[in-house]
Write a structure and sequence with these properties.
Elements lengths: L8 E9 L16 H13 L6 E2 L8 E11 L5 H9 L6 E9 L11 E9 L13 E2 L6 H9 L3 E4 L14 E12 L2 E8 L6 H14 L5 H9 L14 E7 L16 H8 L1
Helix pairs in contact: 1-2, 3-4
C-alpha cells in the first residue's frame, strides 16, 4: 500500500501591520519584528520551522497594509484556515489578510513588478492624538503646487543616489518611479509613490526633500539638481517614518494573487478603510 507522502508547496500571504510597536520587518536578535512574530506563528501553526521572504522590508515605525510574503511548507490546510489559524497566534497589530497557494517560481520579492507606498502628512500645529504614530507632522505653511512641480522631476528612470540611505545594500541606485501624486484634503497631505522597486529610505528621503520645497527653502528645480549630484549629503534629512505605509505590491497575472482593493485615486479613503 502506497503511503501518502506530504508534498512541499509554496504559500503566499497578504499581511497588514501597525509598525509602531515593532523594530521594522526584518528579523532581529531581540525577536521584536513583524517577521519574527509571523514566523513564530507560522511555525506553531504548521508544527515545523517556517522561513518567510517578503516583498519589501519596512523600517521601524513604518506600516503595511499590502505586504506580501512567501514560504515553503509541507502543511496542508484550507486557505481560510491559513488566515484564521495564523491570526489566532499573532498579536492584534499583525493580520493575515489572505492566503494563496502559488507556483514554485513565485518569489515575493523578485516576482514583484511594482510597489506602492503612501505617506500621510498632517499639516497642522500639533498632531491629533488619534494620528500619533500613524501620520507625519509639519506645522509650516506648505506650498502644495511647488511640491507637485518638484515631484515631477523624480518621475521616470533615474539614479536615486541622492535619495538612498548610506547603508543601502542595493547593487544599483537606478529605479523607475512610475507615479508621484500629491493630494491635499483639509489638514492631510497625501503622497502616493509607485515604482518598480525602492531603495532603503528612498520614500522618506523624497518626502523630506519635497517638504523643504513646500516650505520655500528651495525652488522645485532643486530636485533636478539633487538627481544630477547623486550625493545624499546635499539632500534634506530623512523624514519621520510614522506616516509611511506599504499599500500594494503588484505581480504578473499568471500568479493569480488576489487583486488589490487599494484605490490610487483616493489613497486617504482607501487607507482609512484598511486601518
Amino acid at each position: 500500500m502506497q503511503e501518502n507522502i506530504p508534498l512541499l508547496k509554496r504559500m503566499s500571504l497578504g499581511i497588514a501591520y501597525d509598525g509602531q510597536a515593532f523594530n521594522g520587518w526584518q528579523t532581529q536578535p531581540n525577536g521584536n519584528t513583524v517577521q519574527d512574530y509571523l514566523e513564530r506563528a507560522l511555525t506553531q501553526f504548521t508544527d515545523s520551522p517556517v522561513a518567510t521572504i517578503c516583498a519589501g522590508r519596512t523600517d521601524t515605525g513604518v506600516h503595511g497594509i499590502g505586504q506580501v510574503v512567501h514560504f515553503d511548507t509541507y502543511a496542508n490546510r484550507r486557505l481560510y484556515s491559513w488566515v484564521r489559524g495564523v491570526n489566532a497566534l499573532l498579536p492584534p497589530t499583525i493580520r493575515v489578510r489572505w492566503a494563496q497557494e502559488v507556483s514554485d517560481d513565485f518569489h515575493a520579492r523578485f516576482s514583484a513588478i511594482a510597489r506602492t507606498y503612501v505617506y500621510i502628512l498632517r499639516n497642522e500645529t500639533h498632531l491629533a492624538p488619534s494620528w500619533v504614530g500613524r501620520a507625519g507632522l509639519d506645522f509650516n505653511s506648505l506650498n502644495i503646487e511647488a511640491m507637485r512641480q518638484a515631484g515631477q522631476y523624480l518621475v521616470g528612470q533615474h539614479d536615486f543616489s541622492s535619495f538612498r540611505s548610506s547603508i543601502c545594500q542595493a547593487k544599483s541606485p537606478v529605479r523607475t518611479l512610475e507615479l508621484l501624486d500629491i493630494q491635499q484634503q483639509g489638514v492631510f497631505i497625501i503622497f502616493t509613490l509607485k515604482a518598480n522597486a525602492f531603495l532603503h529610505h528612498m520614500v522618506r528621503n523624497i518626502i523630506g526633500a519635497l517638504v523643504y520645497v513646500g516650505k520655500g527653502r528651495y525652488q522645485p528645480e532643486w530636485i533636478q539638481d539633487l538627481l544630477a549630484q547623486k550625493d545624499r549629503k546635499f539632500s534634506a534629512p530623512t523624514f519621520m517614518p510614522d506616516g509611511l505605509y506599504l499599500v500594494d505590491v503588484e505581480y504578473p497575472e499568471n500568479f493569480h494573487l488576489p487583486a488589490s482593493a487599494f484605490d490610487l485615486k483616493q489613497p486617504l479613503q482607501s487607507l482609512i478603510q484598511a486601518l
